């Protein structure tokens, strides 16, 4: 059976780190995804297409079969928490750490701790495991501002070089999780397109 394989990827650092990997396994998009406005891109392999979606939407597209496989950060996968996805391979790209941070001059205060984050699920789990009750404030970006403006005592965010924290007068106090990007696979696709997907996994496995 000749069925095509669709790979979901997000623009930005994941795409930047993924394109060289795909090229090494012989998959090259027919247009530069960074420059093209197309959301579905063909590749040099007639039966492989890429779709370009938001990083947070990659697991959703793969879960519902809009894409057969995808590449997503562990941070996004921990929040998405779906049993409909296989996660067969750590690609070791777009690495960073999910960290707890506070103002450099943070002083403990009475009352329930307030934590601002985009990663509400993972943050709740982290504090629950320590038996600490927290109020979680969901933000979609610029988390570093929250402690500066008194919105929250602490933040949970991704840290790479630490420059963003530093530039905003914050310091990391704990690592919650080491993050890298993973290959994810739709469970039904794994059955129906088994040979193609197994082949992609094993060729990627050899180079990461
Ligand atoms: O940007 P957009 O809103 O479209 O979506 P997104 O933020 O989800 O996408 P993108 O491309 O920014 O991130 C995609 C994935 O890259 C994340 O889900 C992570 O798995 C991974 N990744 C790796 C990172 C970082 N490193 C990283 N440093 N994602 C974000 N950052 C940000 C961080 O949030 C903080 O603002 O970079 C800043 C910290 O960097 P340093 O170097 O100053 O510490
Ligand atoms: Mg971003």
Which key phrases capture this entry?
alpha/beta; D-Maltodextrin-Binding Protein, domain 2; six-stranded mixed sheet; binds phosphoribosyl ATP; 31% helix; binds magnesium ion; five-stranded mixed sheet; 8 helices; elongated; 208 residues
Model description:
With 208 residues, this protein is α/β, with parallel strands linked by helices. It folds into 2 domains: 5-94 and 180-207, Periplasmic binding protein-like II (D-Maltodextrin-Binding Protein, domain 2, 3-Layer(aba) Sandwich); 96-178, D-Maltodextrin-Binding Protein, domain 2, CATH 3.40.190.10. Helices cover 31% and strands 31% of the residues. The chain has helices spanning 13-24, 58-63, 74-80, 120-129, 145-148, 163-167, 187-192, 194-207; strands at residues 5-9, 40-42, 48-52, 69-73, 85-90, 96-103, 113-117, 134-138, 154-159, 170-179, 181-186. The strands form 2 sheets. Strands 2-3-1-4-11-5 form a 6-stranded mixed β-sheet. β7 (113-117), α4 and β8 (134-138) form a beta-alpha-beta unit. The longest helix has 14 residues, at 194-207. Phosphoribosyl ATP binds at residues 10, 12-14, 54-56, 73, 75-76, 94, 96, 157-164, 179, 181.
């Amino acid at each position: 059976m000749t069925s095509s394989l669709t790979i979901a990827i997000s623009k930005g650092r994941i795409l930047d780190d993924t394109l060289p990997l795909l090229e090494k396994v012989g998959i090259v998009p027919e247009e530069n995804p960074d420059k093209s406005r197309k959301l579905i891109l063909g590749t040099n392999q007639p039966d492989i297409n890429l779709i370009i979606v938001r990083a947070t939407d990659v697991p959703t597209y793969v879960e519902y079969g809009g894409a057969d496989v995808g590449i997503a950060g562990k941070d996004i996968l921990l929040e998405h928490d779906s049993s409909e996805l296989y996660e067969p391979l750590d690609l070791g790209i777009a690495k960073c750490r999910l960290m707890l941070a506070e103002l450099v001059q943070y002083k403990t205060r009475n009352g329930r701790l307030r934590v601002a984050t985009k990663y509400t699920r993972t943050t709740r789990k982290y504090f629950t495991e320590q038996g600490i009750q927290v109020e979680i404030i969901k933000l979609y970006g610029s988390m570093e501002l929250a402690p500066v403006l008194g919105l929250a005592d602490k933040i949970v965010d991704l840290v790479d070089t630490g420059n963003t924290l530093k530039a905003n007068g914050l310091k990391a106090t704990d690592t919650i999780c080491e993050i890298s990007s993973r290959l994810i696979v739709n469970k039904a696709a794994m059955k129906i397109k088994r040979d193609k997907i197994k082949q992609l996994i094993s060729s990627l496995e050899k180079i990461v």
